[in-house]
Here is the input.
Amino acid sequence: MSSIRTLGAATAVLLLASACSGAGGGGGGENSVNVLMVNNPQMQDLQKLTADNFTKETGIKVNFTVLPENDVRDKISQDFSSQAGQYDVATISNYETPMYAKNGWLAPMDDFVSKDSGFDQADILEPIKQSLTAADGKVYAQPFYGESSFLMYRKDIFAEKGVTLPDKPTWQQVAEAAAKVSTPEVRGICLRGQPGWGQVMAPLTTVVNTFGGTWFTKDWQAQVNAPEFKEATKFYVDLVRTHGENGAPQAGFAECLNNMTQGKVAMWYDATVAAGLLEAADSPVKGKLGFTQAPVVKTDSSGWLYTWAFGIQKASKKQDNAWKFISWASGKGYEELAGKTLGWSKVPDGKRSSTYQRAEYKQSSGTFSAMAEAAIKSAKPLNPGVQERPAPGIQFVGIPEFTDLGTQVSQQISSAIAGATSVDDALNNGQGLAEKVAAKYKGQ
Here is the structure.
């Protein structure tokens, strides 16, 4: 989802012109594999390193087709749903994986894993592994990188104002801090307000979860205008309208990153991957940041969970080659290669416990790596709230209809942030949409 969409969302426009497309046809020779991949920076790094390393070691030629996020999602859906077999491997997320597996579009990986002692499946962070496991208990994708969400704040501004935050704040404490540090020039907090199921709805749904709300009950009762959902949404909208960034109804990941980098906001709640960008060598705020776990109310944790991962099309006739590529790209050896070749800040992190033990990685990631690891480890993709859910997902509901439902509701929420409608009206409209979706699942 550019959803969280972290780096993918932030850079999709910038990378559109430079996206590199390779041959993606079903041929390519016997000793080859066809990979359909999103064009974010980490994936482009992978593409650059493949020929001189993976192909040189294995003799397997990798034919890449690399596209912007929305385009690649459409193409993957078309090819995998028809089981055309044009692509052997594709980048999918933990949103698609369980659904694709249920539809019979993916090859299970358990047999490959059991025969590949060097891959070390036990090293994959448990919530990431869980999110790529289908209802049948089998693993259907391997992560390339992962993320959760946490709160980032300017230590210098907080110190100047005499404000402190605990390592695990409540949302009420965050709102109080935002009020104390906010000025016309430097707003208290940046929260996504841009329409999109992976834009405003990603952070907002984590707030809904910890306030005790949910999109649907276990038996598919829509809850979008229920008291808990409404309380969380009003809190979020009021906070961003009162102490949030300028232009909040149009602000997504990229805009909040800009605001934080340029010193226009004192706090930002968003993807853990943002920390690496803020702590980059050329960042004006490098060394000025503090980090806390995602704020909570009624739950022990509230951070989201997202991963870009590699899945094998069930119709692929080159599944052995496909696994060899995935084992290399998702393995410890690739991380070491990327770290030594490109720099440790370029390592696709967020998926392996061993990454966070590397001295080189710790040195390059500064103060945020331990907090990011803790955020991912505490994520609960199957149980993110106070009640049981009918489908997996923290910042989304793991059903195909959520892309449309989440987008339509997000438009209403953005309108409320802009002051063009009330939260009550926005959620009453959303409830009607959610009830139509729920009707499809009741009694199944």
